[in-house]
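Possible regression after last week's pipeline update?

I re-ran a chain I had predicted before the update to compare outputs. Posting the input and the new output here so someone can diff against the archived version. Not blocking, just want to make sure nothing changed silently.
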Amino acid sequence: RLRARMAVLPGDGVAGEVLELGGERLVGQRLRRLQAQVELVRMKDRYVPKFAPEVRALDKREVKVQGYMMPLQVGEKQTHFVLAAMPQTCAFCMPGGPESFVEVKTKKPVKYGFEPVVVSGRLEVLSDDPTGVFYRISDAAQTH
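New output (post-update):
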């Protein structure tokens, strides 16, 4: 078994990581305990995430997530992108593993930039997504 951090819920641009659930902000040790509750478990010929009950409880919850946009489409505005916990430093390198990303699909296009982006929506915790994604927010909206 491999231990993985759930670092999909990145910092506020100043220090620390932030996840907001129903107005409650999880920061510091409480968030790090939550992040540590994801394991990669070998199933036949691949590894899949095994989420602790506290992480699975986030499934279908309204969340606000901040991260650095990695576009998946061509153009200045994006409706499908990945939020990463860390900024991308190389166009060919990923700044972390699947536990450090959230796939985002927005209702309205979001302008691409190098500054952190904040989106809100319903989080999906994915146990067996064929693309290898652990977390997804669909019908997201950009917030501040």
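Follow-up from reviewer: compared with the archived run. The longest strand covers residues 101-111. Marking as no regression found.
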